[in-house]
Amino acid sequence: MVRLFLALIALAVFSMSMALPGYTQTAAPQQEPAKQEPKPENKPKEENKGGKQDPNKYTAEQVVESVILVYGTRPALDHIRRNGVERGRITRTTPEGNTEETNYERRFVRGENLDKDKIRLDQKLPTMEYSLIYGDGKLWGIINGAAFTPRQDATANFISQHVHSIDSLLRYKECGSTPTLVGKEQQKGLELFVVDLTDKHDRKTRYYISARSLRVLWLEYDEGGIKYTRKFHDYRAVQQTLAPYRTVLLEDGRQSQETRVLTITYGAKVDDSIFKSPEG
User: Fold this and answer.
1) Backbone φ and ψ of 47, nearest 5°
2) Other C-beta atoms within 10 Å of 53: how many?
3) Given this model, what pLDDT does residue 206 score?
4) Is 77's pLDDT higher than 70?
5) Which of 60, 162, 180, 195 is in the most buried spot, having the most CB atoms within 10 Å?
6) Is 251 exposed, middle or buried (0-12, 13-18, 19+ CB in 10 A)?
7) pLDDT exceeds 80 at position 169
8) From the CA atom positions of the chain, what is the Rg in Å?
9) What are phi and psi of 230, to 5 degrees?
10) Helix H or strand E encompassing 140
11) DSSP states along 109-178
């Protein structure tokens, strides 16, 4: 009986030692790796140095295709924007600081690519009215019913506006252009995707796209030793697609032109005869 009593006491003491806090601390060394968890949290901060992030997280195609979805999806853009009429006002600023205002009407029929588009731009100035017509990759003008060859600067401005445009990005596949993701950066508190687009004629346009809204905020290109910047403002929904109603053009940082859209109507009937030269 005494031996049994002593055995029970020894068992009780052993059980109590198992429950003591000092016993469970032997597992603490196995939990030490958890102290290294803060290290990964510091890694993005190092990658964000200078406002830039790892561009390899996305591909250029993923970014551009997402932009196309935001602007209305490729089927909607192809169908709704097949033809249309746009009216508005253009304000040009001369190097001397003088301004000239022009009312315009732009009618267009969309082709398989930018080179096959048909565009007629009618402009009304206080002293004259004239039209610039683009078709089959060529540009000519009409004034008082007679055809004329536009000045070189007018031709270059028209072609540049057509080639270096949002539409060029939205139709990059149709035009055989190649997008390249330059990276992701921050400017003036805006998080941006920067995408270069090179067309089949080796003309390059750089697009700055909001990472939040996936809208093109501005684009840049160089021509004749001049850096052009075209900024897009006042985006509005137009027949299930997205379009900017105010565009500002800068030449080497100086504002040279502002375009304000008054109305846009997609799907409006456009007679093919308006794109033909009066000389045959």
Assistant:
1) -70, -30
2) 18
3) 98
4) yes
5) 195
6) middle
7) yes
8) 32
9) -115, 115
10) strand 138-143
11) E--SSGGG-EEEEEEE-SS-EEEEEEETTEEEEEETTEEEPPPHHHHHHHHHHHHSSHHHHHTTTTTT-E
pLDDT category, 153, cuts 50, 70, 90? Answer: confident
Closest C-alpha to 241, from 73, 63, 66: 73
pLDDT at 103 over 90: yes
Give the span between the Cα atoms of 47 and 1, in whole angstroms: 75
In a domain, 15, yes or no: no
- Out of 12-16, 56-60, 78-82, give the one with best mean pLDDT: 78-82
User: Does residue 129 lie within any of the structural domains?
Assistant: yes
Give the HSE-up count for residue 170: Cα atoms under 13 Å, Cβ half-sphere: 24
Domain of 261, in residue numbers: 58-275
What residues have CB less than 8 Å from 264, skipping those under 6 apart?
A: 84, 85, 86, 87, 238, 243
For residue 51, how far is the Cα from the chain centroid? 19
Written as six digits, the tokens of 232 are 């897009």
Return the pLDDT at 210.
98
pLDDT digits (tens, 9 = 90+) for 189-232: 999 999 999 999 999 999 999 999 999 999 999 998 999 999 99
Q: What CATH number does residue 171 fall under?
A: 2.50.20.10
Q: Residue 96: its pLDDT value, please?
A: 85
Domain count, the chain: 1
